[in-house]
Each structure stands twice: as structure tokens, then as C-alpha cells.
């Protein structure tokens, strides 16, 4: 189980339903360009990038996909080479055996059931081999139709610190967030938290003195009014 940040939320602040809008507004003002760091040109590239991004950085994925997408343009291309060749081509993203297997399974299903296209439907995405809820959420959100809220390590940590959830499990955290984050913000909310987590609310040393949420919106703030 990853480290929990629930107990850091000790200060008295307004109820989370009252705080959520100002939290989003202040973070949006701070990070107007917050968005996905993966580089892709179409839904297939988006799906592949997100599948490759498990357990590695977006920078690393972009480095690999820059070459990969020149060679593999359609689902057929992932099945036309020996699996060892695909494994070599994605090796630098780590867990290359599982990822190659998932990619080939996904491409086969796309060809069999969806005319080689990435389906829009959330449940159809979840049927694809190696596509879990987080991947389906990212793909749907980037296509402009978020079906939930992406919970990664930053979203988990910041939601706990901000007192938006007391849960540890990502699915339960997402359930808590869906109840309070306005639906039009489901897509950008995780990006705001991810950007804030990378720049200010560091896992070990949150820089609360630089944080726009410190004085009234975050119960874990280490600075006081
Ligand atoms: S950096 Fe901001 S969000 Fe993170 S703990 Fe400090 S006040 Fe809270």
C-alpha cells in the first residue's frame, strides 16, 4: 500500500463541497495550461501512449513514441511484426513484455470488433486487454468526454491532503471526487492536481508557503494565517 496522506489533514477548514470550486479556480488561475504531457495525434496514438505510460514518466513515453508512431500507424502494424520486435521497440518504457502483450491483444480486438478504431464508449474501452479504469478515464477525458476522474499518485496524495477524501483505494477516491467536483471539470481537475503536485505539493516537502490554497482551503497546510 502506498504512503497515506489522510492524517496530514488536521486544520479546520470549510466543508469540502464549499471549498471545491475555489480550489479549482485558484489552481486554474495558477496553471492555465495544465494538460496532458503525452504527445499524440489521434485516438490510437493516445490509447497506445497511455498504455505505455504505466510505471514510467510521460517524458520517457514521448521519447519512445516519437519513433514508434512512425513505424506503427494502424492496429495491423502492431500485429504484423514478431512480438519480440514490438518488445524491443517499447523496451525503454519498462514492463515491455506485458505492455507488448496488452498492445497486441488490444489491436486484435480493435480490428475484430471496432473496424480498427478506438471506441468512444467507456465500457468498450474497458474491454480492451490491458486497459484498466485509469487508462479508459484518460482516453475518454482527452477525447472531450470524461466519464470519471483520473486518480494517479498525485491526485491521490493531493486529494487526501486537501481533505477531499479519506479513502486509500483509487476507485473509492474517484467515487468521492465525482460527488463533489462539478462534471464540466472532471477532465481538467486531475491535470490541475498533477501540475500542482509536481510543482508545489511535493510528496516529501510540500511548499505550502508558495501554495495559493494554504491559508483557507487546505487542512494540511504547514503555514498559518
Ligand atoms: S502545498 Fe498546498 S495543497 Fe499541498 S499541503 Fe501545502 S497547502 Fe496543502
Q: Mind sketching the topology for me?
A:
Layout: H1 16-30, H2 43-52, H3 58-71, H4 75-80, H5 83-90, H6 96-113, H7 122-127, H8 133-142, H9 153-161, H10 170-180, H11 188-199
Helix pairs in contact: 2-8, 5-6, 9-11
Bound molecules: iron/sulfur cluster.
Iron/sulfur cluster (SF4) is lined by residues 161-162, 200-201, 206-208, 211, 213-214, 218, 220-221.
Explain what the structure shows.
The protein is 53% helix and 0% strand. The chain is mainly α and 225 residues long. The longest helix has 18 residues, at 96-113. It is elongated and about 60 Å long. Bound molecules: iron/sulfur cluster.
Q: Given the C-alpha coordinates, what overall shape results?
A: elongated
SS element count, helices: 11
Mean pLDDT: 96
Number of strands: 0
- Unreliable residue stretches: none
Approximate helicity band: 40-55%
Q: C-alpha Rg, in Å? A: 19 Å
Which structural category do the helix and sheet elements fall into?
mainly alpha
Tell me what portion of residues adopts beta-strand conformation: under 5%
List the ions, cofactors and other small molecules found in this model. iron/sulfur cluster
> Order of helices and strands, N to C?
HHHHHHHHHHH
Q: Give the distance, in angstroms, between the N- and C-terminal Cα atoms.
A: 34 Å
Please outline the major beta sheet.
none
Q: Could you name the key traits of this structure?
A:
mainly alpha; 225 residues; binds iron/sulfur cluster
The gist of it:
The chain is an all-alpha fold.
Amino acid at each position: 500500500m502506498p504512503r497515506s496522506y489522510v492524517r496530514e489533514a488536521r486544520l479546520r477548514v470549510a466543508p469540502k463541497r464549499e471549498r471545491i470550486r475555489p480550489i479549482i479556480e485558484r489552481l486554474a488561475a495558477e496553471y492555465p495550461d495544465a494538460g496532458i504531457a503525452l504527445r499524440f495525434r489521434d485516438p490510437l496514438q493516445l490509447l497506445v501512449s497511455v498504455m505505455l505510460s504505466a510505471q514510467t514518466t510521460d517524458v520517457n513515453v514521448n521519447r519512445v513514441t516519437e519513433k514508434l508512431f512512425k513505424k506503427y500507424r494502424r492496429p495491423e502494424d502492431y500485429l504484423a511484426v514478431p512480438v519480440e520486435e514490438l518488445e524491443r521497440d517499447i523496451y525503454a518504457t519498462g514492463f515491455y513484455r506485458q505492455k507488448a502483450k496488452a498492445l497486441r491483444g488490444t489491436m486484435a480486438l480493435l480490428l475484430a470488433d471496432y473496424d480498427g478504431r478506438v471506441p468512444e464508449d467507456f465500457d468498450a474501452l474497458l474491454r480492451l486487454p490491458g486497459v484498466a479504469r485509469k487508462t479508459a478515464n484518460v482516453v475518454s477525458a482527452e477525447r472531450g468526454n470524461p466519464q470519471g476522474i483520473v486518480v494517479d499518485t498525485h491526485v491521490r496524495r493531493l486529494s487526501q491532503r486537501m481533505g477531499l477524501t479519506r479513502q486509500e483505494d483509487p476507485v473509492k477516491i474517484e467515487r468521492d471526487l465525482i460527488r463533489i467536483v462539478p462534471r464540466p471539470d472532471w477532465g481538467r481537475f486531475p491535470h490541475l492536481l498533477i501540475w500542482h503536485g509536481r510543482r508545489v505539493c511535493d510528496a516529501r516537502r510540500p511548499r505550502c508557503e508558495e501554495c495559493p490554497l494554504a491559508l483557507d482551503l487546505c487542512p494540511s497546510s504547514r503555514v498559518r494565517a
